[in-house]
Amino acid sequence: MADGGVDRGVGTDRGVGTSPAVEIAQWVAARRARAGQTRVLAVDGRSGGGKTTLAQAIAERLHAPVVRMDDLYDGWDGLAAGVDQLVARILGPLARGERACWRRYDWDQGRYGPRQTLDPAPAILVVEGVGAGARAATPLLSGLVCVAAPVRVRRRRALARDGDTFAPHWDRWARHEDRYFAAEDVAGRADLLVNGAPASAGPATGWPQVVARTGLRRTVRR
């Protein structure tokens, strides 16, 4: 998915924040639109890695809307359904010059709720969450960012944010993540790799191997 030379590694001493966001925002704004007239940036990675914070910071820099995969999943076992919605109801229509229209999942009610739309089509769209960088979506993405952090950091963050809701389902969701990342090789296909862990937490699980495999050219630290 490369449109020429890409700096593949973005690091941070204190976790994901605005400095990587500035660089990534500038980078994606210069990429070629692949979903019609819309440049779509996917920010993928496991729960609690820091992708939501990073995606929001990028979107604010670009004045771009954010679609969250959490809104597309069909519940705790609906990761695949979320990817299907992303491609069929958001990216596909944008590529055809049609209005993106999807259903947002209501986690309290346990079912999909009212329709959501993107109208008019934005110049840049940020999609964040597990599944954003799925292979099925790749032809319509202008960029793919993968964010990683050690499991202890991710679990602490996720449960601090969504503890009462997420805690009973952590292991269940982690199994879906395991299958997804094993099948999709998101880090191996990513244009940019972001270490979402604070320096004190040590490297992200598997991060040295990922950097070596994808040919890190430089590291940007906050």
Q: What is this structure, in a nutshell?
A:
This protein is α/β, with parallel strands linked by helices and 222 residues long. It is 38% helix and 18% strand.
Helical residue percent band: 25-40%
Report mean pLDDT, rounded to a whole number. 82
Q: What is the beta-strand fraction?
A: 15-25%
Protein structure class: alpha/beta
Sheet bearing the most strands, described? 6 strands, parallel
Strand order within the widest sheet? Answer: 1-8-7-2-6-3
Q: How do the helices and strands follow one another from N- to C-terminus? A: EHEHEHEEEEHHHEH
How would you describe this structure to a colleague?
This protein has 222 residues and is an alpha/beta fold. It is 38% helix and 18% strand. It contains 7 helices and 8 strands; from the N terminus they run βαβαβαββββαααβα. The protein has a 6-stranded parallel β-sheet with strand order 1-8-7-2-6-3, with helices on both faces. Strands 4-5 form a two-stranded antiparallel sheet. A hairpin with a 4-residue loop joins strand 4 and strand 5. Helix 1 packs across helix 2. The longest helix has 17 residues. The radius of gyration is 16 Å and the shape is globular. The N terminus and C terminus are likely disordered.
What's the arrangement of secondary structure elements?
Elements: E1 9-10, H1 18-29, E2 39-44, H2 51-62, E3 66-68, H3 79-95, E4 100-106, E5 111-118, E6 124-128, E7 143-148, H4 151-166, H5 170-184, H6 186-189, E8 192-195, H7 207-214
Parallel strand pairs: 1-8, 2-6, 2-7, 3-6, 7-8
Antiparallel strand pairs: 4-5
Helix pairs in contact: 1-2
